[in-house]
Specification:
The complex is a heterodimer of chains A (252) and B (202). By secondary structure, chain A is an all-alpha fold. Chain A is 81% helix and 0% strand. In chain A, helix 3 packs across helix 4, helix 5 packs across helix 8 and helix 9 packs antiparallel against helix 10. Chain B has a 5-stranded parallel β-sheet with strand order 6-7-8-3-9, with helices on both faces. A 4-stranded antiparallel β-sheet of chain B has the order 2-1-4-5, with no helix packed on it. In chain B, strand 1 and strand 2 form a beta hairpin. Classes of the chains: A mainly alpha (252), B alpha/beta (202).
Chain lengths: 252, 202
């Protein structure tokens, strides 16, 4: 059982770090202080909200929370993209709903078949999937929307020769996909050799056997990479529609 | 060949033009909309118009890729960033679905080899070499009309003469026709000089 006493030593260490940062750089001090306080506040609130939801055991509430999480993720992706276009939020919502929701249900079924929509099983899973997809999608889409403006002449010269929009943007789409998937690919490469992933660490600390913890981690990573991949594919194709009309004419 | 009625260009100018397919030297002051007109003709940007027909067929009834492969637009400067060698750039269109069974005329490839352009790395090409390569690539395609937007400006006289003589051969055999945007006084007597203000709606 964790108590506030357990937090004391890490908190003291962190206070020392913040005090040290004050004498080094005021900006780092400010950023550190705000982010640490924000993190503590957010996680404390999260624990209260989760306890409330877990106790209610109401599927409607669980689905509502999943929806709020998805809307929030879609909004966050939008805010991280430099070249925004009308309908970007809706595109993000569609790509997340079509990629993450089915994967979350599959994942929940694979791990906890008997309690598919139970809040303690599905909410953390959705959080992980959305969080990872959010990073991949925002990086991939940001790269695409920025590069398509920079390479407008390249795209135009190919379209002018008779290329379809998919042919003219093929290279750009491939690069964006690679860019969006890179964080997850790098994480998977180092996993187990350089790092012990967060979920597995949590499970091990909670007393689960390493074999079982590894199994859950593998399932989660497979879902995360698939979710990011499908989310990116859908997101990139939806944003393509904003840059070209049905006749393949350039609209930006 | 091309019938345009009340084509609205993004700069606010409206154009009506019944182009019979004879080669044209399009002139006009800066900002008059020459490039915009060429891009609109080759359907690169959405434009409003009352009528737009290619060989009596409404443009909207034609497959966009096929239409653009028939009326090719050549920009003044083309990016070579995605290509390592000049030959990669030259042969790139052959990867497109629309040119699946197309092969380039030997004459053009031989000339590029003679000028020692094809084996060069793109980063080593001069502006003139880049321009001749883009022009040759456009000429090698199966287009019925090529819209050349100030793409002769960096050429030396020998290469320009050769390109023009190649174009004239194609015009004579009715294989290809051209609209060239240029600020030169005269390109060649075979080209009808038209000022954009002549086809502008008053």
């Amino acid at each position: 059982m964790m108590t506030l006493i357990n937090l004391l030593l890490p908190a003291l260490l962190c206070t020392g770090m913040v005090v040290l940062s004050y004498f080094q750089d005021k900006k780092i001090f400010k950023d550190l202080t705000i982010s640490i306080l924000r993190m503590i506040l957010q996680l404390t609130l999260l624990s209260l909200v989760l306890s409330w939801i877990f106790n209610l055991k109401d599927t409607k509430i669980v689905v509502s929370v999943l929806l709020i999480m998805t809307f929030n993720a879609a909004y966050n992706i939008k805010s991280r993209i430099d070249f925004k276009y009308p309908g970007l939020f809706l595109d993000n919502l569609i790509s997340l709903s079509l990629s993450i929701w089915p994967l979350c249900i599959i994942g929940s079924y694979s791990m906890y078949a008997d309690k598919l929509l139970d809040a303690p099983s599905i909410l953390p899973l959705m959080g992980m999937l959305l969080g990872n997809s959010l990073n991949g999608l925002s990086q991939g889409l940001n790269f695409f929307t920025k590069k398509i403006h920079e390479s407008k002449d390249d795209v135009l010269s190919l379209i002018a020769l008779g290329a379809t929009t998919s042919e003219a943007t093929k290279l750009l789409l491939q690069q964006s996909l690679r860019y969006g998937l890179a964080p997850n690919i790098n994480a998977m490469i180092s996993m187990g050799i350089v790092t012990i992933p967060g979920v597995m660490t949590g499970q091990l600390m909670a007393g689960m056997s390493p074999q079982e913890a590894v199994m859950i981690q593998i399932i989660i990573m497979l879902l995360v990479i698939s979710g990011t991949y499908f989310g990116l594919i859908i997101g990139l194709h939806l944003s393509m529609r904003k840059y070209f009309n049905q006749r393949g004419e350039i609209c930006f | 060949m091309l019938l345009i009625k009340n084509l609205h260009l993004p700069n606010g100018i409206k154009i009506s033009w019944d182009w019979d397919g004879q080669p044209v030297h399009l002139t006009g002051k800066n900002g008059a909309g020459k490039s915009l007109l060429l891009k609109a003709i080759s359907s690169l940007y959405p434009c409003l118009y009352d009528e737009f027909k290619l060989n009596d067929i409404p443009r909207n009834n034609l497959n966009p890729s096929q239409y653009r492969s028939q009326i090719v637009y050549l920009a003044p400067q083309i990016s070579f960033l995605n290509y390592e060698r000049a030959s990669d750039f030259y042969k790139a269109p052959l990867q497109l679905q629309i040119y699946k069974n197309h092969s380039y005329p030997q004459e053009l490839e031989q000339k590029l080899k003679e000028w020692n352009i094809l084996d060069k790395k793109c980063q080593d090409l001069s502006s003139g070499e880049k321009q001749i390569l883009s022009l040759t690539r456009a000429l090698a395609l199966k287009a019925k009309a090529i819209l050349i937007d100030e793409a002769l400006t960096h050429l030396d006289s020998a290469r320009k003469d050769w390109i023009l003589s190649y174009m004239l051969k194609k015009i004579k055999s009715h294989e290809q026709t051209y609209i060239i945007v240029s600020h030169e006084d005269n390109i060649h007597p075979a080209f009808n000089k038209i000022d954009i203000s002549q086809i502008q709606n008053v």
